Queue: 3 jobs
Job 1
Amino acid sequence: MPDVQPLVREFVLKLKRRKVEGSHAVARQTAELLRSVVSQHRMGSTNQAAALADAIRGVGEQLIAANPIELAVGNIVRRVLHIIKEEDISSTAVGIEGLSVTAESDDEYDSENDDHPTLSAAVLAAHARNALRAPSLQTLLEDIPVSTALSRSASSAGDSDGKSGDKSSKSRKLKHDVIAAIGDLIDEIDTCYDQISEQAVEHIHQNEVILTLGRSRTVKEFLYAAKEKKRSFRVFVAEGAPRYQGHVLAKELVEKGVQTTVITDSAVFAMISRVNMVIVGAHAIMANGGVIAPVGMNMVALAAQRHAVPFVVVAGSHKLCPLYPHNPEVLLNELKSPSDLLDFGEFSNCMNFSTQDGTPLLNVVNPTFDYVPPKLVSLFITDTGGHSPSYMYRLIAEYYSADDLVVKRRSTSTSS
Amino acid sequence: MDLRRPPRSSSGGVEPKIRQVGFVTPDVSSEPPAPAVPAAAAAAAQPAASSAGSPPASDLSPGSLSPVMIPPPRHADHLAPGSPSPAASASELGDDESWSRAPSAAELEANKGDLAEIRNDNVSASIPQKQKTSKAERRAIQEAQRAAKAAAKETGLSGKSAGTVSGANPAMSKQAKSSKASQKKDVPQAASTAASEKKVTERPPERDRKKDAPHPRMQFDDVHRVEKAKKRAIVNQSEARNRVELFRHLPQYVHGTQLPGLESKFFQLEPMHPSVYKVGLQYLSGEVSGGNGRCIAMLLAFKEAIKDYSTPPKKNLSRDLTAKISSYVSFLIECRPLSISMGNAIRFLKNRIAKLPLTLSESEAKSSLQSDIDRFINEKIVVADKVIVSHAITKVRDNDVLLTYGSSSVVEMILDHAHELGRKFRVIVVDSRPKLEGQGLLRRLVEKGINCTYTHINAISYIMHEVTRVFLGASSILSNGTVYSRVGTASVAMVAHAFGIPVLVCCEAYKFHERVQLDSICANELGDPDIILKVPGKADLGHLKNMADNENLQLLNLTYDATPSDYVSMIITDYGMVKYLAPLIAVFYLSYLGIFI
């Protein structure tokens, strides 16, 4: 795909240099890039889906490596891979007539397929999704990737149909469907704010006192929506050192006429006894329901738990990450420049001191993210509605497939 | 009222707070309530009575009560200043001083004389005697007193102490009214003293009962009181705009407006002593901060003031000096609200002044007070810190990673000492806006060669994985074990507790206080709100600069917060290392009220 490489390289550079930041922007640009990749991809004759998926994996690997902390990139890549699988299954199912789709699968639905050779694509796609979600024991034990099974079925379907002329139209259709689905994904990313904000009136009533830390666009839209609906509430905004984005949020809220009080981060514990609800945004939601959030959020969550204040996390579904957080404080974190905390000019004389073994006496730690364990979160509000942390794995299973967790390019010669 | 009435203590124990612990001489509780005689008694008789009262009182004080004894104020019936009762009520007044604003400000106008103090002694002292006075009888007595008061108006008392009590007990309106009336009086003479004493002692018992509970502080949400306070203030403060609703009960002024005004008035000092003025300015500018620092600065300024003090003619040294000290304190409060350590120190000082034997000459009294102050600073702060360090050093082992928050003088001493002893450890300094006190501590530690890590309070969850011990300082420890210290301490203790890391709080015993607090909102200090807008080093964060006048925006700059006791693993004081502090605090705080070491 020579045409797409410059685009990919450019985006990789942007990610590496942190020129593009924020899950929303990153997710959107990743989706658009992948859509270009798909449209530029030349579909082969066989195993189009697998080849396409592999191409996506190749690009995705580069993107994820550029900024491993920006989990939205990986999320979108995996979403696209899942889309490819789904579209492939549904298009294959439509093409199949009188043939059981998953001969390998043990699903009971398949026995019914024999009796009902012509099934709607949607139903078959649903069946396929079932197969994807709960891979059969056979495939698990034999370590046969599902895509291979699919491609086998596709090829067998193609063989049995004997309509070779359909292949080109099928490949065109697959690409078309995938591009359309990615377009839907982009729309979903864009409209997540609206869908989340619609739920604001269910949670904010009268005379509420809300606490938030830093600035999240989702939270801002959420509060705007509640204000539109004439709900009365006041907001305590904690500054959110060292970026101090809380000031920006406070300004935006004040302009809308919301009673806002700016407090320092150290005063969160002091004020939280008078707060009804804590509403915060997240950087990413992990598979166990844990939250990667801007630094300081764990402190707020602990304080909220102590005072029995509901801790609500609002996040779009593009922030949902299928990975499990192992040692997230270290592995999913980034340390920023100490100059945010200490002025180099003032402390220059301290920086010269060192011990005998040359290690400096003065270290500065400036992490970007914080991990909030699922037991501290009361509710997740996503564009699909409100969920408890223990439900997040279901959402993830809907959007992602299990073998895409590690995005790594495989050689395409697995089948036939 | 008369001897028929039994002392209040044996009346069935309505008093919750102050109990007799130990042996009491019968004289103390059964002193004839001379001031309770109705106003018909000759005024001339009273001075004689008062002077007669004092020698026995002074005889009484040294030997009558054992050192452990905590005499309740109502049991001492003396008029003289040398008795424990005035000491007790002086401490109560000191308590008022600490916690009330307007009345202290009120005292500034009329600054001489403190016979109102004696008046209050008699209130507390003689109330138990006349518990059974019927309402009608009391009213009659009050009428008689008012008549006598009107007669003695030209020799009025200073409004100081009366104002104190009145301000501190807004619920007691009657008392307030009579005090305010007395505020208009001039420096008293003995006759008027007696008259006003008579008037005061006839107050109904409920007032005294209410006195036992810690007084509510100055109500800043009451507009009238605030207005009154403003009229009497030396320092011109304008109230800040955009006050947070939740904190209407605390004063919030625009910072930076007072300093230039005060600086210009430096040479028009009367009645302020220059060293006190200087300390006040240092508080305002933030140059002197920290519980120990402020307390020591204040006591040294008072020592200077006492050195330069000379009793005006026809006045009693202890009463006049107490009034002067109270006026200084009210000035300091206007510069910056008192810390709990300062409040306790003032109480101690007033106690010492009140207990001065009358036989001392002026210079002897002054030198005795100065040595008392030196002794206080030495015993309660300097030596106490050394003891705390020696206790805490046992908790610092090799390869420890110690976390501290902000800048506490005691914790810094512990770290220095541990480093001198050659322990291998490293320190994590956690800091927060807006004061950024940790930077000073960081600099001092690095200069000594201690390996330090610096971070901000949001990152404590990140850094807590590495930590083995948390050392925190405190502004005070309250009676229910709550640690009252710099805002953010509660968050640090909470996160440390969540990670299972021991939290050790180091606090000198003189900072303990008997009050209780459940959260950080009931009592706090509001700092300059505008400083929240200005983020140093980030000029582009001027987002909110233009919005400061918007009525929807409020800024909150808390100074203190209350850490619940269950987050604290151990408290290290000069009296030892304890986990459950409540009984310790009760005993040691009450010792400030009565006999003092």
Job 2
Amino acid sequence: ATCPRRWRPPCASRSSGSASASPCPTRRSRWAQRLSDSRRPGAVVAPGTPRRAQAAPGPRLGCPRPRGDTDSRAAGPLALARDLLAEGGEPFFVLNSDVICEFPFAALARFHRQHGGEGSIVVTRVEEPAKYGVVVSEPDSGRICRFVEKPRVFVSNKINAGLYIFSPGILQRIQLRPTSIEKEIFPAMAQDGQLYAMELQGFWMDIGQPKDFLTGMCMYLQALRAQHPEKLHSGPGVVGNVLVDPSAKIGANCVIGPNVTIGAGVVVEDGVRIKRCTVLQGARIRSHSWLESCIVGWSCSVGQWVRMENVTVLGEDVIVNDELYLNGANVLPHKSIAESVPEPRIIM
Amino acid sequence: MPLKAVILIGGPQKGTRFRPLSFEVPKPLFPVAGVPMVQHHIEACAKVPGLKEILLMGFYQPHEALSRFLAAAQQEFKIPIRYLQEYAALGTAGGIYHFRDQILAGGADAFFVLNADVCSEFPLQEMLDFRQQHGDTDSFVILGTTANRTQALNYGCIVANADTQEHYVEKPSTFVSEIINCGIYLFTPAIFQHIGQVFQRNQQELALEESSNGWQRAEVIRLEQDVFTALAGSGKLYVYKTDGFWSQIKSAGSAIYASRLYLNQYSQSHPERLAQNKPGGPIIRGNVYIHPTASVDSTAVLGPNVSIGEGVTVGAGVRIRESIILHGASLHDHTCVLNTIVGWDSTIGRWARVEGTPSDPNPNDPYAKIDSETLFRDGRLTPSITILGCSVTIPAEVVILNSIVLPHKELSRSYKNQIIL
């Protein structure tokens, strides 16, 4: 699928769906976990999922990449996969890959069966609904009356959380052309009284922007602390919620955390301080450096005595020379940085 | 041939561009490459055979640091050194005119005059030989060096015919010459006649003028504007051109640059002052001075161009480059200090980054000199060397970039491009 533009640079070489918010499981396999927990067979469709479908019974992972025009909006690929989805006559989930939450698949499936309509969408409360598309629904049944895009006056504080479940009947509504499910399909379904809203419990974040990705990461780690604290890292020099891949190596006299995720094969040398960062697979952070609110891309090399802060994002295979200061730098992949970036900017 | 040297050290009203560093210690005592600025002058003078006495001249009030320094210097260099305090700021010529009897006492038939705020190779013997060569015992010699056309306008410009000066202009507004005045002179007693003439003229002018401006004094005489401009073309003023290193030390940035020049010179003149890589010691890159009482962790990486003062503590994994760390300062683990002057007894917390912007002259131009930038340009602080005044505390994990922190300030967050009062 086309990479959402806001997410560059890491995504210039990979789809945002594979940037892990946690080191071991990708988002895709976490959905799979949830699905099997919910004991409902169903296909998981996420734009851009690269893995091929497995022919085994039970939860099927991924789907064949839709052939043809991959520049469709979310609805287009559904039409392309029409045959796969319609087979079996069961409802199927549709997920936006750039949201993070606790993915209540079981509850959503139950909710959908109960009302019997064509579609259910998960909604979540936000503080600033005007930034998003707002959902107006009946309080008891959850039936959606209408959508309002970016309302200027307060209408509702519930927005579309990007998780849907549909009955196969929806496929009749979608034609084989670029279609926006939110703009074209949903309003029509709402008019027909076929769309219902289920309110999300727990955290939710749109992680399309690097700044929000880090916020979402913090929320996810907090939820992990509540539910599976044994998965978090602990030890000398670890502060707060920290997730470290077993294959990563952390040196002496480091202080890591709070809110840090460290990917597979990462090497953190001695005397490094990391706060509120995601460090992706294979990266190396050299000694005495200081990182706060950063995303360090796959296979990057951050030099010694480097200071990076304020949502600095390094794409894949970026080299940052020793003793530099990066403040809000967005660095595209395969770049070498030899000069400090004292004020936020993009390095191409 | 009895020789003397006079070092003009100015006073508190001068050297204001050196604030906040000049709040604690008189500018001439500020350490450059590990020793007080003026000690480099004294060392050079002491090397000249026949130099009988060194006179420091300025209008600082009696100062404990100054007296201690003079006592120590006398002991070390085995040459009489005295401080002559002007009763007011008398200008670069007014002071030596006022103290002419002291200077000439003991039958001195020639004397050097050196500005304290220059950094130089001090080719004093060469200047003496040069004067010997062309035979005129009543002539005066100015040390000159080459600057590029744009920067020459900031200095005293010398137009020379062969070696005699035809013309002298101080800080012209249009291009006059690339040869500039280094602030190091060799005079004979005859100079006092010429200064005396200027003094007379001033007095006459003052008498004519209405006494509106109370600060005007007849005794305030400037060598450059009042004496040299008149003497040029008289056949009495010679210029000895040098290609050796030379720089003014007007601002904190130029102190770091001057440090580098002197540290480079140490490899020939004082190799014992340069730190060496030793097992169990810190990693040294380039020229670094470390005071014997400083305590530096073996995982620290220092240099190039670093001076570590007395009693300084440098923690594990610290990186220092192009900086001067003054007495008693304490740098905690993993800090990174670049292009900075860290004031006396200051503290820098763990993982902090303290960084300035160098104002070095263009390395591709052999005649480029360091610019004395104005503090502000277009309403914003010009990026320059970061200065931490005396007893400043920088907390852990912050960044201090291109900022000046006044003494005794305890910071609580990061700062960039600011003067913190």
Job 3
Amino acid sequence: FLVSDGLVQSCGHIIPESPVLALGSSFTALCILNESCLDFGNIYANQIIWKIKNRVVPKEQYHEVNRTVSSVTFNDTSSLANPLTCNVLADGQIEQNIYGITVTIGLPPEKPKNLSCIVHQLSKLTYPMTCTWNPGRHTFLDTHFRLKYRWPQENFPDCIPKDVNNSCTIADVQFFVNLEVWVEAANVLGRAESDPLVLDPIEIVKPLSPHNLSVNSGILPTVLKLSWENRISAAVMKLKFNIRYRIIGDTKWMQVPPEDTASPRTSFSVQGLRPYTEYVFSIRCMKEDGVGYWSDWSEEKTGVTTEDKPSKGPPIWRIIDASRSPASWTVHLMWKALEPFEANGVILRYEVTVRAKSSLSGLSEKYNVNTTSLTLNLPNGTYEVTVMAHNRVGTSPPSVLLIPASNSKAPVKNVRTLPKDGRLWVGWTAPNTYVLKYVIEWCLVSNSSDCIIEWQNEPGNIQGTYLKGDIKPFKCYLITVYPLYADGQGSGQSVKAYLQQDRPSKGPTVQTKKVGKAEAVLTWNHLTVDEQNGFIRSYTIFYKTVDGNETAVSVDPSKTEYTLSSLTSDTLYTVRMMAYTDEGGRSGPDFTFTTQKFGKGEIEAIVVPVCLAFLLIVLLGVLFCFNKRDLIKKHIWPIVPDPSKSNIAQWSPQVPAK
Amino acid sequence: MAAADSSSATLRRCDLCSRGIRLAGKMRSDVVDLLDTYAEQQGLDASASVAAVEGVPVAAVEHWDEQTGTQRLLENLAAYRAFRALLAQMLEEQQEQLGEADAALSRALAAVLLQVSAFAYHLEELLRLESRGPPSEEGARPPQPPHLGLFERKLRGLGVLRELAQWAIRSARDLRQLAKPSLGSSSAPSLAESP
């Protein structure tokens, strides 16, 4: 560099200084040396070396324009990088930098596409319009977008997007005049315009949803009246509506037929609803001719229809307990509470009428209860029981149950069950006469609790049904089917059933009743129904000695005793029992016993002869001894002479003189 | 060719008429709202009677049903051009007088002015379809407003808006007359085209 007057002057400069180039285009830069620079050290244009970053640009791309100007050409900007420097080999072969530039490479904007606009109603008087478009490919440069719009005779200020490049919102638009809208994209390399959109903003409006929705119940229990306020004035646009509703707690919406709400209105009566049910309503609107967009659904509002009288009487059944005396029954009447869609309101009481059909007077007793059962003591006979449910509005149709004195009519046949899909199916063969309906009773059989009866009605024309209610697996149910006729009842036919069987939870505890030398009588108790978990199909007894193989014996499930035979005597045996259902078996605890060493009577057979023999020997011995008693006597106690009879005894002593 | 022209002209006419009617309806509704706001802001009684204001075209006309289509269009156009100037003046005075204090009123006035402008344009287009062409606006400079005091200016503004509301009703009826197929049109004699 030259130093003159304290200022540093560069030896040359490059033009263009800070170009912006389109990707893929060609580019030529010129390095122009100052005249004053040439005076120092023989610097000429042909000594100029161009460099990109620190790589030398090939000399083929250079062109010496004149003594002081060198140019470099790039056919494709993709080989360019920053910085591009103009350098020269000065005296002493030192490369010196003269000037450098930075190049910006980008693309001109693409034509914006897919321009679309929508007017969102913000308030009763404010209608901003939002337009969106596809801005096209990335340009690598600062590209500005403007949304332009005008009337044929009036121009409006451009809409400039904030923070985004693909949408813009105009604060307020006028209706009924065609608006021409288009997008202009511009950067240093060029500009592009989208195709214009010509529209009347009234055709792209998304109105605010109606508000202040209120729901009123009227006189009819199947009707609710909706009223609301529209937030768009009739001068701007006439509206059509969609009304949707659902029962509270339900997820499925029902819609009022759109044809019925296709015109301007501020109220509507929805019909065909269920009495005494809470409904949720919501409404939305759009331009009456269908041009534009639907508003959002309004806030939900609930209403309850008024009550109506119950539509059906409750189904009735009875349990008769004749155990106290056959002439007097304890009749336990029971009926099922009505479903909400049959009750149509709050059931306040049930009216039960019991009429004795067998008596000629036809006297009947009325009872009013607010539970679903009634227990009466009645003398044996035929009765007609009628139950009616009352709510605030009225009375249900009567439900009738005939209780005949005896279940003498034809019963069903061939009751069978089949578990299917987690439910228990019960089937039967209908009797030949016309059946009014069937009643199916079932209860859970268990040792630890009573068999509480559940029941259901079935129409008279079917021969099978699924049990409603919670049927648990691995539990035994007793199922009874009764046919009901117009003038009597058939006796109940029962069957036991399992929804799903399992292996027993315990095995039978086996013990010996009597153990012999080569046999043992085993005994056990049947498993309780709670332990069985299924129908016991068979028992198997396993027995073995300490070091022997296990032997298995099958036993009929009805038995509680079994005799093992051909056992070895005086051996320790271990025995256990397995009970099997269709799903498997379980073993009970082991029991050990030892077979007797001697059989029955064996001991006597040995001891008695031994004793007898002993006795005989003793007897013989005694006899022998008796015979030879003298000899024995002689040996055993020899005769000892009596000293008193001895000579010396007779010798009278003369005392020798002293 | 001619038939196509004629039918597209008819369609365009229909479109301009129907949108003009709706615009007139909206304009009236907006002006009525604006009247209330204006009266309140200016501290006037909305029902105050205002004598006929100089320079404001009067909507009432005798023998309305005897007018031809062209006459209707010309009268309407003259009226709305006048209103455009009057409202622009009012807007200027408004901004001078109240400054930034009442932006809502200014915005509402500006919106009505835009609609008046748009309606004038509709009328010009309809006149072009009549092969009449709208009269130029050159000579039609608004008469210099008489120098009025503040209160009188406020009353004048009220009168302008009231008359504009009346014009909106009249314009809607005029356009409905125009839209009827046979009546009221004194366009170029229909060409004998149907083969």
